[in-house]
Amino acid sequence: MGKPNLIERLRSELLVGDGAMTTYLYQQGVSIGDCTEELVLSDPKLVVGVHQAYYEAGARVIETHTYGANRERLTRYGLEGKVTRLNREAVRLARESVGDDAYILGSIGSICAGRMPAYDEEEYRDMYEEQATALLHAGVDGILLETFLDVKEMLLAVEVIRPLTKLPLLAQFSMLEVGRTRDAFSISTAFQLLAERGVDGVGLNCRLGPMELLRGLEKTVVPEQLVITAFPNASRLGITDGELAYKSNPAYFEQTAELLVEQGVSLLGGCCGTTPEHIRLLAQSLKGRKPVPRRNPQNRETAQPVAVEITERVKPTVVEKVRHKRTIVCEFDTPKDLDISAFLHGASRLHQAGVDAITMADNSLATARMSNLALGAILKEKMGIEPLVHVACRDRNLLGQQSHLMGLHALGIDQILVITGDPTRMGDLPGASSIYDVTSFELIRMVKQLNEGISFAGRQLKQKARFVVGAAFNPHVRQLDAAVRRLEKKVEAGADFIMTQPVYDAQGIIDVHEATKHIPIPIFIGIMPLTGYRNALFLHNEVPGIKISPEVLKRMEQQPDKAAGRREGVAVAKELLEVALSRFNGIYLITPFSYWQMSEELIRFIHQYDSQHIALRA
């Protein structure tokens, strides 16, 4: 006679799961960053040794070493062709490592993991089906979905896997914010949605230690029919003696386990930082115990967070303006030194000329410049000038990015342009790190999440942000259609307006207009005047995609000095503007080398052009 079904067993008896696999392997000398799932093939004895250590410590629910054995993750190591083999071998090793009284759960981790939730759902469905099928065919006793941050991805995985088997299906979330998922569902709501889709058990694991998982369960309503699991970390990850480590206290782990049991947990194990010693003490204290009936809290949370109303903006945004009239955004770089007097003077002159907003790059060309946040605040508060600041993915990790955006919100700077940012190796500090935690697409979505009153971690904020988000468009590619398709994805991500790279020929302006006229959001066409013949040669020969006509090159070559070169560059820009002004309501002037006088003249030209054409129409 075989073992009873795992769920039946958990309704009548407390069971102990195993502890960490990957962090424990690191303690055994495996290099951090290696694909540890591959060890089931290259060093199976090492994996077997970990399973046996946990079994001997008292664990009777053993997870396969397959948390990251999905096609997406394995592709990073050139192992995408071994998905089925790795998963099946991991099941065999786990089964042969322990006694017949142990249950083997096929571990499936979040594919999205710590990254932002932007992915192809159909591709994810295929990957979950591929991994789950391999685990099920290899003979697991159930499937454990673990360390999921978002309800959306968890539901997708459940919808794929539940029809494949009647074996137990357990689902565990990992919390960034106690009591909520990253996509801002309460854990109560998340558990209810999983119950409706047929899972057998729900729980929490990873990222946080026992006490914070306890806090999460204390405020959560768990559907009656579900068993509850908890696999906390040993503690939060921290730096000890200069090394990243988990503060490990097996006795404390045993002590707090009793509190988790009182919350109705019937399967209790460990996640990152835990060891066989944690599990040994846990098994000793829980031996022979029966589950405690779950008592849900009385104050049930609503299904979705309710954010407060946003405050109204006093002045119209560039998006609101451009839908009705000509709107000029002028880029003017912040200084490379500590003296801001010249910058403020130039900004003032551009404002007087009639620009609608001054946009400031975020360390353009990866060269260190004064913070556009700081100077944007000065322009807005002291000079009454509307700032539009660039936000680069390059310079800040997610923590710094959210903090930066929250600071912009506090200063009332709500018009931004999200860009990828040039790699730091191109700039004046080539040894600096390029962060790129997220792509520009993902950052646009995240800014829009702040507009819903939800932090990057899914925490409900006390206010909604009101960012108007721009996206960049580079038409200087061999296939304009491909660039437009990429642009369409930025619109889908939530972009409110588009700013293009500078265009240097009349036909290019016409081509951009024709290729983008179906785009439902405003487009600001980029115009940057040439400053001389050498500048024209550089752009024509060294900047991919930019072509300057032979006629213009000849005109620039004929200029006798720098001042004449700048005058001719302005003349050429006016000719391009005449083509652009009849097709685009939004104009994006880019000031070269802080020559604000050139942009000032072009701003006045645009206003003169509009006045003349209004008079002609009248």
TrEMBL record:
Its cofactor is FAD; Zn(2+). The keyword Ion transport does not apply. It comes from the Bacteria. Pfam families: MTHFR (PF02219), S-methyl_trans (PF02574). PROSITE patterns: HCY (PS50970). Residues 3-286 form the Hcy-binding domain. Pathway: One-carbon metabolism; tetrahydrofolate interconversion. Keywords: FAD, Flavoprotein, Metal-binding, Methyltransferase, Oxidoreductase, Transferase, Zinc. The keyword Oxidoreductase applies. Zn(2+) binds at residues 206, 271-272. InterPro entries: FAD-linked_oxidoreductase-like, HCY_dom, HCY_dom_sf, Mehydrof_redctse-like. NCBIfam families: PRK08645.1. This is Homocysteine S-methyltransferase. The lineage of its organism: Bacteria, Bacillati, Bacillota, Bacilli, Bacillales.
